[in-house]
Amino acid sequence: MMTNLFSIFDPSTNIFNISLNWLSTMLGLMFLPTYYWLIPNRFLLLWNNILNKLHFEFKTLIGKNKTNGSTFIFISIFTFILFNNLLGIFPYIFTSSSHLCMSLSISIPIWLSFMIYGWLFNNEHMFSHLIPQGTPKILMPFMVMIETISNIIRPGTLAVRLTANMIAGHLLLTLLSGTGTSMSSKFVIILIMIQFLLLTLESAVAIIQSYVITILSTLYSSEVN
């Protein structure tokens, strides 16, 4: 049962023994052609407002003296994760964000770039983060170990947070859909309503998780400056 349950996350589309499932990672680019953005519409205005609010929020967290290019990096990460999370909700579309190899490929380069930049160009500031202010001298060695471990596990926590939340919602929807065939017609209507509510909740989780991952990455970048 568990094997069949988790098999919904296995890549299964192959042509000439080449897996095409991971192409869905870039599927969002097909829905955003260049000429589409040249036509004023409500979706464009809404999306521009969201990006502007994210830009000002990220700029506040990073620092107002930083260039706009720093915020554009995090906005691109937010957009990439958001489209992959939302596309994974649709039927027959491979959910790439539910795999650790995809989420780790995002979190590890971000964390490594912050660590390399911080220790090369701002090492005194990085050392000061290892010991919080007001720490007793007897606890300083333990605080250094705790802060070092917390810094090392950051990419793992980012990746696991995204993967676990996406897997949990998909598994719950799969479990409920599998029990529909053994129910009477009265309970099927209730089950459809519950699935609709879960689908709405899963859409909200997809948006929230992309925002949380981006905000945490922004906070990590502010620590090395």
Largest sheet, strands/sense/barrel:
2 strands, antiparallel
Radius of gyration: 21 Å
Write down the secondary-structure element order.
Answer: HEEHHHHHHH
The chain-level mean pLDDT equals 79
The share of residues in extended strands comes to under 5%
Low-confidence runs: none
Task: Give the overall silhouette.
Answer: globular
Percent of residues in helical segments? Answer: 55-70%
Please report the number of helical segments: 8
The order of strands across the largest sheet is 1-2
Number of domains: 1
Category from helices, strands and their pairing: mainly alpha
Give the termini separation.
Answer: 49 Å
Number of strands: 2
Could you describe the 3D structure shown?
It is a multi-pass membrane protein. It is found in: Membrane; Mitochondrion inner membrane. This is ATP synthase subunit a. A two-stranded antiparallel sheet has the order 1-2. The N and C termini lie far apart (49 Å). By secondary structure, it is mainly α. Helix 2 packs across helix 3, helix 4 packs antiparallel against helix 7 (154-178) and helix 7 (154-178) packs antiparallel against helix 8 (185-223). The chain has helices at 2-6, 42-62, 68-87, 100-121, 123-130, 140-152, 154-178, 185-223; strands at 14-15, 18-19. It contains eight helices and two strands. The protein has one domain. The relative contact order is 0.13. The longest helix has 39 residues, at 185-223.
Summarize the structure.
The protein is mostly helical and 225 residues long. The protein is built from 8 helices and 2 strands; from the N terminus they run H-E-E-H-H-H-H-H-H-H. 68% of the residues lie in helices and 2% in strands.
